[in-house]
Amino acid sequence: MSTRDLARIGSILKAIHKMTERPMILMEVCGTHTVSIFRHGIRELLPSSIRLLSGPGCPVCVTDQADIDAALSLARRKDTLIATYGDMLRVPGSRTSLAEERSSGSDIRIITSASQCIDLAMEHPDREVIFFAVGFETTAPATASLVLEASRKELPNLSVINFHKRTPPVLEALAMDPSLKIDGFILPGHVSVILGHGPYSFLAEKYGKASCIAGFEGEDILLAIADLCLQIREGRPRAASVYPRAVRPEGNPMALELMDRVFLSGPAKWRGIGPIQDSGFAFRKEFSPFDARIKWDLHIPETEPPEGCRCGDVLSGKITPRECPLFSTACTPVKPVGPCMVSSEGTCSAYFRFARGGNPDWKR
Amino acid sequence: MEKITLGHGSGGRLTQELIGKVVELFPPQLVAGDMEDCTFIDDHMAMTIDSFTVTPRTFPGGDIGKLAICGSANDLAVRGIAPENIAMSLVIEEGFELEELKKYMRSAAKVCQDLGLRLTAGDTKVVPAGALDGLFITTCSVGRRKTSYPLGMNNLRPGDKLMVTTSIGQHGATIGAERFNLSSENLRSDCGSLWSCIQDIIDVDGLRCLRDCTRGGLGTALCEWAEGTGYGMEIEEVLIPLSEEVSAICDILGFDPLYLACEGCALIGASPSAMDRILARLRNNPISSDTRVIGEVVENHGRIVGMKTLIGGMRIVDMPVGEMLPRIC
Chain A within 8 Å of B240 (Cβ-Cβ)? Predict the structure, then answer.
């Protein structure tokens, strides 16, 4: 990083410090932002009047426990091959995780792109390849493209257990929650590459909340915080962006069209938060042969979260990890109780790994 | 019933736990060794053992044969011990092509020749197809101390300088890129022997200790020093050598370069007065020409590695727990 970069960062910080006479609560919605804020040590550069809350932006953390149990039940069958993104591996269902099933002999493959499932299905015609699809609008287009390709190829042994989730509906749930009192949102960069600016305008128009799309470098996040401070101070909230190098106002039309061709909006259950209307991606009828829930007649029984675990309250920004009684005592990265401690993008894991639970005293 | 997962083999916290559970079954008086890369069996001789399994077996910059000799020899070298004798055990899957095996053994022989390392004992086993993935190599090496005092982390004192000999994460990024079809021309494993550069500095008074940053990377090596000495380690992100290629792979897969494996990179602790001589000599050797000072040993935040970030904040570098996995988005 050059001296010029450092000077620029210094002046952004100075601007932030000047604009924060009153306390404000900002929420970063994206798990990658949560990790980035810790990785760059941003909290301690900010004035104490700014409180940063972490939101429900870790895709595996918000996957409901019963949904994971469903995937595990499919993984235990001898005639299946489960493909999923790496982060999903360690997240616990009510009894085990995919990592534990793998060590018991289940065939679980980590993929980096949904399209790899096509090759897997063609290489293993004797087995059912099931893609365990999680993530927000960032990964949903790739799943849509996979389903279209599988449909074109008429692959009989490929299905998707679809737990994708939509970002705007959960933002609305957070914005209207009177117990949260969020002044502004740091909006997810990758999701916004797909969605553009438009789907966030309701935050300012309907709820008077400031918002700003941010990239993932330290400077990107500081810039977004400065923009939010300005919006809040001037009383002029809007859907802003400081990430124009990646996000176009209209988003990515091709990805939006792909999602629209394959999915409809449907209800989805968020771990710890509960069901949110229209926050899920349901298969359109013509693609239902690829819906693993239908193909395998999955009935997912409700399960209780682990006793004492407050991941739900952490995910909705109601508490910080330090306020959970299990945090860093019964629940640590070595022996995690809830998903927020398991995932590399989980809020509790980030608090633990980078800042010993957000306790600034570690430096003494 | 607790089971072994891949996370137990990652070199981080879970690996430590597993080692603890194994070692506690032996009577304490029959267990030698500390938390170092190899152990002195008397005043002068030291010994180490290591197993090697890697997918793919041939990668830019090396192959499993080269890796198996360098890895074991480096574990000795970082304590100032000239690798002299090596024993090698091969476990081979039925159906493995002889020509492929010979290719790896030629690579291994080349390293032995360069180091004057004698193949002293060996063993081969063949197991039925499917019982393992191709080939596992285990090497055990023994050598003699060339320093006037034993190098080890217990020599470290607050104020000592921390250095690394090459840009970090090259091996891990290369293997990761090969596995996920992201390989690029400029990405090469740093797999290689460290003895020649260590030989250059072992007579410098004030050299405290070295560590071979293998599995778990620089971050894990620093954590082990912090936890093993009770001191804090403090590094600056801006000072850590990191290539653009490795950085790009980390961005794509969501890896932290601090925890990516190296196979030819040493972490060095030395007194401030020894620093300049060590730097000058290492920078004269092509395998360590990029040596940099990255931080120092500190009295505060004992047992914790702190890092000043690029933009001036502070964070903890914690020991990773298990397997590093590509993130979702």
Answer: no
